[in-house]
Every structure is written in C-alpha cells, then in structure tokens.
C-alpha cells in the first residue's frame, strides 16, 4: 500500500528509475521489520539464571575452535580481517604478550616474532591450538592468572570479555599482570546501528529470521556492558583508552553448511534443540550466493598509566570505520 501511494504514479507512467525501486523496497521492508520487532518483543521471556562458566566449558568442549572458524571467514572490504585488526597495535611489541582466553590461539601466527603465550580454561580449545603448534599454552581461569605482578607487556583479549565472569575480577587480574605503560587490545561484538539497517536490508532480514526462529531479541551475553561500553568500562578500571573503533564485517552465508556454522557459533544458553534446528532451517532457506550477515565488531586499545591512582584515564574515540 505504501508503494502504491508513494510511487504508484511513477510506476504507472513507466518513468521508473533505480531509486524508485529502492523506495519501493524500503516501503515493504519497514513494516516487515516493525512487525518482526513486535513479534520478538511478544515472545521474549525472562531468561533463567545461567551458570555461564559451566555453559562455556560445555560449549567449547563440544565446539573447539568455533570462534576462529567463524571470524577467519569475516571480511570488511579493504580492511584487515578481525584477528589481524585486533593484534595490529601489538605488531611492534616484543612481549611478553598474554593472549587472554586464547581459545584455539588464532593470534599466535600473527604475532610470530613476539614472546607470546596463551591462557584458556578450555582443555579442548588448548588441544586444538597445541595440535597445530600454537604454543606455549597454559590452562587457567581468566580471573586467577598464574602470572606475577607486572610480568607482561601486553594483553590481547579477542572475543572474550563479553562472556568472562566475574568481569570485574578478570579486569583486576589483567591490570595486575600488566606492567605500567603496557597495552590492552580487546575485540568484542558491537550492535547494528540504525543506518546499517537501511544500507544492508538483506543481511538484517537474515538476522531477523534467525532471531524469530530462536524466539529471542538478541544473543544473551553475561556482560552486555563489555560490548559498546567497553571503553568506559576499561577507563573505570584505571586504564587510559587510546582508541575505540568499530567496523562492520560480512559473514557469507552461501549454503546450508554456512548457515549451520553460523548458528553453532552463537552462544544460546537455555535454547532447546528444536529452536536451534528451526533457526538452522530458517537461515538455510535464506542462504544463497552473495548472501551475507552483517557482523559489527568493536576494537578498544588501552594502556595502563605509569602512575595508577585508581581513577580512570581519558577516552579518545577515533573515527568509526565501516
């Protein structure tokens, strides 16, 4: 109806342009998204209390290297892929560099010339890393690091701060083991912003299909404040934030195999097998050549001041790249 009212005379006259069809598509998309948001709000229920450490242990036991498998497929035009982008600030750091919650250790080869070591709580993830020579490694919790005070020059935290709990204790440990002046670089999921909803409608529809099938509004995180609010969180823990950047990456969903990997890569505590299977079917039916899901990520780089007084530093927010 919106298309008939807004563009009907143009279509009838035969004087259409590419812009005409874009406006028609938007007119159809708006009510679809509004209806989807209402649907999701109606189905949302309070999530039960989740034992996140146990859930994460089971998840990574059953899916070792799943995060690496997903992120190594993400692209962002001429920009670096997620892992190279994360370690970019550490290229000239000789080390020691701690890779916190390193998983399958995808950053090891990217920092081959540095004194690097990885720590993770998952034996399965560490086994994958060791099998391909990504060492040295140690199994330990992020809130109880087996390291001396001020013993590392840098900490790399790729896609972990949004799920590590208790987060305050983790950040206290990061601050403890980092030498004064040392660097922290962290990669976390971000949120889609309004302009991206209209610039990439097909990918947004793909996400809507997944969320509707799962009956949720967003992926449940134990530390949602550690996503787009990570810079302020680090500042509150005594770090000076040097850069706070965001990029939109693309994850190709060309076939059902890609769709299944995408769903398996989501943290979905409490989701039953029927909902997960329904989400895979929904994404598989949408998948096809040229189809991709938008994946916004945020990288925050900070350092520990030489004279830590217990108060935060300043936040320097750089231009956002998309």
TrEMBL record:
<keyword id="KW-0472">Membrane</keyword>
<dbReference type="GO" id="GO:0032259">
    <property type="term" value="P:methylation"/>
</dbReference>
<keyword id="KW-0812">Transmembrane</keyword>
<keyword id="KW-1133">Transmembrane helix</keyword>
<keyword id="KW-0489">Methyltransferase</keyword>
<feature type="domain" description="Methyltransferase type 11">
    <location>
        <begin position="98"/>
        <end position="184"/>
    </location>
</feature>
<keyword id="KW-0808">Transferase</keyword>
<dbReference type="Pfam" id="PF08241">
    <property type="entry name" value="Methyltransf_11"/>
</dbReference>
<dbReference type="GO" id="GO:0008757">
    <property type="term" value="F:S-adenosylmethionine-dependent methyltransferase activity"/>
</dbReference>
<dbReference type="InterPro" id="IPR013216">
    <property type="entry name" value="Methyltransf_11"/>
</dbReference>
<dbReference type="InterPro" id="IPR050508">
    <property type="entry name" value="Methyltransf_Superfamily"/>
</dbReference>
<dbReference type="InterPro" id="IPR029063">
    <property type="entry name" value="SAM-dependent_MTases_sf"/>
</dbReference>
<feature type="transmembrane region" description="Helical">
    <location>
        <begin position="20"/>
        <end position="40"/>
    </location>
</feature>
<protein>
    <submittedName>
        <fullName>Methyltransferase family protein</fullName>
    </submittedName>
</protein>
